[in-house]
Design a protein that fits this description.
By secondary structure, the chain is mainly alpha-helical. Helix content is 48%, strand content 4%. It is built from seven helices and two strands, in the order ααβααβααα.
Length: 167
């Protein structure tokens, strides 16, 4: 069983009670926050084996696996998370804007509100990314077509006698 399969088996355990599930995720989110605080403060891209990075951030290999699973879509080069083991070389070189956008999408306010973002993205740019992400999930309806309005298909007929007919 790969590290990722083990992580997902634990993280999404259907046999866990609601309290066990919430406790697991609350603990993980605290670990994740600490890891992001450290990662965002790094000046050079972070690379190493899964085990080395787990040791560097003071977490176990399973927590590191969860972190790698979560950040993978925001990395400059994806890691082989599906097949990795403790000795797999991985990179945490991320795209700041993509990472911020994905954190907003995940509704992870404890991450996208970290003070470390101040040195990576301007406040204005963070607001733009926030708005961009939020508007990407908003459904905008077009103007309502009245029964006696010209049909939008271009037939020249009234809407009620064309595409708006009850069939």
């Amino acid at each position: 069983m790969t590290l990722l399969e083990q992580w997902r088996g634990t993280a999404y355990n259907e046999n866990a009670s609601r309290q066990e599930y919430e406790t697991f995720w609350n603990n993980y989110f605290a670990i994740e926050k600490n890891m992001y605080e450290a990662l965002l403060a790094e000046e050079q891209p972070v690379k190493g084996t899964v085990k080395e990075l787990a040791d560097k951030y003071g977490v176990d290999v399973m927590a590191m696996t969860g972190f790698l699973d979560g950040i993978d879509e925001s990395l400059k080069t994806a890691n082989p998370i599906e097949t990795m083991d403790e000795n797999t070389e991985v990179s945490l070189e991320y795209e700041p804007e993509k990472l911020y956008y994905n954190m907003v999408e995940a509704r992870a306010s404890w991450l996208y509100e970290l003070p470390q973002w101040d040195s990576l993205l301007t406040e204005e740019r963070r607001k733009e990314l926030y708005k961009e992400q939020k508007s990407s999930t908003t459904i905008v309806k077009g103007p309502k077509i009245g029964r006696n309005d010209p049909c939008p298909c271009g037939s020249g007929k009234k809407y009620k006698h064309c595409c708006g007919r009850n069939k």
